[in-house]
Amino acid sequence: MGANILNLGIKELRSLWRDRMLLIFIAYAFTLAIYAAATAMPETLNKTSVAIVDEDGSPLSARIADSLLPPYFLPPVMIGREAMDRRMDLGEDVFALDIPVDFQRDLLAGRRPALQLNVDATRMTQAFAGSGYIQEIVTGEVRAFLARYRGAPALPVELTLRARFNPDLTKAWFGSVMEVINNITMLSIILTGAALLREREHGTIEHLLVMPVTPFEIMAAKVWSMAVVVLLATAVAILFVVQGLLAVPIQGSVALFLLGAVLHLFATTSLGIFLGTFARSMPQFALLLILVLLPLELLSGGMTPRESMPAAVRDLMLLAPTTHFVALAQAILYRGAGLAVVWPQFLAIGGIGGAFFAIAHARFRRTIGRMA
Q1: Mind listing the pLDDT tens digit for each residue in 270-310?
Q2: Where would I find the H helices in the chain?
């Protein structure tokens, strides 16, 4: 049995080697895609363009303009009302603040004048964050102007913030590792499913049916061969892209993380085989992949904290291997945890992987039996 699994796995590796597009996709997913995800536009503002239509010309309006400081904003551009729409249509300004006539006078008279903030909502990240920033800045300047005093009240308690594991709150440290985890899940499912569908589309599945091999051997060969490919790509990504190119400090053992990745690959490659038994072509497999992959990535705790999810969703996602793998990876790579800390995640991934493999094997045997 062992020789059959080994030889069939080598056949899968040779078949993958001839599929140039998949090889290019693997290389891109574990190099450029990780770098792009880590160095993309940050969620905080950075050098955002602002225009101000100052129809008041008062000291208060000047204070508001002076309060929009770098690095969040570029120095505000003073424009006329007639140029506001044209500049936003051309994409020159993300925000345009219109300060009306007699704004300061109305405030001192006890009235509540309104400012108009125009936002280019096509810049979605900047639009959501920036509008809140500008509202807070303008409110603070108006409050300080009316009180004729700028300062924070003395509180009886002083709060000292210390950010552990990422003191500078560098987004690349988080984004790069999470992209590696997401690509491990995605590629392992795609490669095993594509390996099964490739047999069906090329007509070689019939050759396997007349050979002295069992469905278990066929499935095990596809699982180990595709898992080895993804594991090697993961090691390259961690060592040369995350630690080397992006200079992300890894606190824990890379070998322990890769051991966890082996268990995770056991589960996800089995899932890929399971999905491949339902699809009849690669387009059908791609549609199934969307339905499965998005919840695995969005609800596993890698993009959104699990604490912010409903209890039912948290409990349901405990059945997914990605939930435990994300917790394992964050504990090892960010916080330097050892096996004594993450063994429950190892145990959970192993149990889920075994269940996935058994279900996929039963489904694969029925599929092979119908084809025979």
Answers
A1: 999 999 888 888 888 889 999 999 888 888 888 888 888 88
A2: 2-18, 20-29, 32-39, 59-66, 81-89, 103-108, 124-147, 171-202, 205-209, 215-236, 254-278, 282-298, 311-317, 321-329, 339-371
Do residues 323 and 351 lie in contact, with contact meaning Cβ atoms separated by under 8 Å? Answer: no
Residues written for the chain: 372
Q: Tell me the pTM.
A: 0.75
Residue 12 identity (one-letter amino acid) = E
Alpha carbons 134 and 221: distance in angstroms, whole number = 58
What does DSSP say about strands 95-99 and 116-119: parallel, antiparallel, or unpaired?
antiparallel
* Alpha-carbon span 325 to 349, nearest angstrom: 7
Structure tokens at 197: 């569908």
Contacts of residue 332, defined as CB under 8 A and 6 or more positions apart, other chains included, come to 251, 252, 253, 256, 257, 260, 342
Q: Look at residue 208 in the predicted model and tell me its pLDDT.
A: 66
Give 320-324's long-range contacts (Cβ < 8 A, gap of 24+).
320/295, 320/296, 320/352, 321/263, 321/264, 321/267, 321/268, 321/348, 321/349, 321/352, 321/353, 321/356, 322/181, 322/185, 322/264, 322/268, 322/296, 322/297, 323/299, 324/348, 324/349, 324/352
Region at 142 (left for phi over 0; alpha for psi -120 to 50; beta for the rest): alpha
Q: All domains of the chain, ordered by start, with CATH?
A: 2-40+166-371 (no CATH), 50-147 (3.40.1710.10)
Question: Cis before residue 249, ω within 30 degrees of 0?
Answer: no
- Give tens-digit pLDDT for 179-193: 999 999 999 999 998
**Within the chain, which residues score under 50 in pLDDT?**
none
